[in-house]
Amino acid sequence: MKKVVKFGGSSLASAEQFQKVGEIIREDKSRRYVVPSAPGKRYPEDVKVTDMLYDCYHAAEEGKSFSSKFKRIRERYQEIIDGLHLDLSLEEEFRLIEQNFREKAGEDYAASRGEYLNGIIMACYLQMEFIDAAEVIFFDEEGAFDAEKTNKCLAERLDQAEYAVIPGFYGKSANGTIKTFSRGGSDITGSIVARAVNADIYENWTDVSGFLVTDPRIIKDPETIGTITYKELRELSYMGATVLHADAILPLRSAGIPINIRNTNRPKDKGTMIVESTCSKPKYTITGIAGKKGFASINIEKDMMNSEIGFGRKVLQVFEENGLSFEHVPSGIDTLTVFVHQDEFQEKEQSVIAGLHRAVNPDTIELESDLALIAVVGRGMKRTRGTAGRIFSALAHAHVNVKMIDQGSSELNIIIGVENRDFEAAIKAIYDIFVTVSL
């Protein structure tokens, strides 16, 4: 059994958190490869080390004194080392980092040092081999992740290491400089490592006990999802529900490696399993609810549009020519509605309207703003009758006016449009009818 374990910044923010991580890893010998993030916040008002590094480097880049900022970063790491009672000095690493800051080595280099230094500490604490991610993770000349080269090199290197720590978030570009993934990229590193070693499972440890049915800022203590498929996760992530970086899913899905989201502070909780497919029935008809505010709709009406070949293409081409992407395009016999992000659309609305008139000569065009979209997702919806009816009934009971409803052909999700002001009430109503009444 081989497990790859990734720990987020909140899991490694202090010596106390490191000790929790150490207990988790030592408890299971199959947790062989560890991917750490940089230290996160110790308390709400605290600053993440990555943000401290960005701030420090920007001062250096502008030719300002950065010694006091750099000192605070050193103190954060020394506090962890002292708290773990390690015989470890990072003096040489800090000397080189300070020199590279003065020589303006780049923002990516600066940001990556958070994971790099934490990786050294973690390897010392766990008595594992430290492998610099810059030696095994590569980007091509265009700056894109080089999956083939990375997988080959990483697999060969880890085949020689029974236990190892590989810091997340960064790798090496084609010209030899450090390059980072986007923020949250340690998730990606973890999935890359899991793919390279053909891990039996990838454990992603964070500060929540798995993927929640809906946003805890709207529903107090929502239920945790026990098992979710990659397809369901994709639908929910599209609507803003985030636990994993989206790019972290692909390497694992293609290899059939399951992901287990776990809580460092509550290690006995089973968390959420993310899998390709499963025979297990979901606890509820729905798996999750997610949504976003800030949409506008453009409703185009034209008699007999359904018989006009190329009508939809011409409409969407107008949005493309104006540099706008669309979210959803529900349609009827004589109507077609395009949902777009309102903040992107507002400056170009008149250009779009004029373009639509030229392209398809509609009977009318109506705009509506301040809309929200909500996705109700679940593999259980396929085999359950009346799901849409229950949603409508719950929303009507909560006095929420439905502006749009669209069900995908996969029967995995139903998208509902409501006014921004009804967003929270709609999510509460849907949660109550499918989850609360089932408890």
Question: Would you mind describing this structure in some detail?
Answer:
Helices cover 37% and strands 19% of the residues. By secondary structure, the chain is an alpha/beta fold. The chain has an eight-stranded mixed beta sheet, with helices on both faces. A hairpin with a 5-residue loop joins strand 14 (404-407) and strand 15 (413-419).
- In the predicted model, the low-confidence regions spanning at least 5 consecutive residues are none
- Secondary structure class reads alpha/beta
Helical segment tally?
14
Mean pLDDT: 92
Integer-rounded radius of gyration: 25 Å
Give the % helix: 25-40%
Q: How many DSSP-defined strands?
A: 15
Distance between the termini: 36 Å
Strand-residue proportion: 15-25%
Order of helices and strands: EHEHHHHEHEEEHEEHHEEEHEHHEHEEH
Shape: globular
Give the strand order of the largest sheet, numbering strands 1, 2, ... along the chain. 3-4-2-1-7-9-10-8
Major beta sheet summary: 8 strands, mixed
Secondary-structure map:
Elements: E1 3-7, H1 15-27, E2 31-36, H2 49-61, H3 67-83, H4 91-102, H5 107-126, E3 129-130, H6 147-158, E4 164-165, E5 170-172, E6 178-180, H7 186-196, E7 201-206, E8 227-229, H8 230-238, H9 250-255, E9 259-263, E10 272-275, E11 288-301, H10 311-321, E12 335-341, H11 342-345, H12 349-360, E13 364-377, H13 387-397, E14 404-407, E15 413-419, H14 423-434
Parallel strand pairs: 1-2, 1-7, 2-4, 3-4, 7-9, 8-10
Antiparallel strand pairs: 5-6, 9-10, 11-12, 11-13, 13-15, 14-15
Helix pairs in contact: 2-3, 2-5, 6-7, 10-12, 13-14
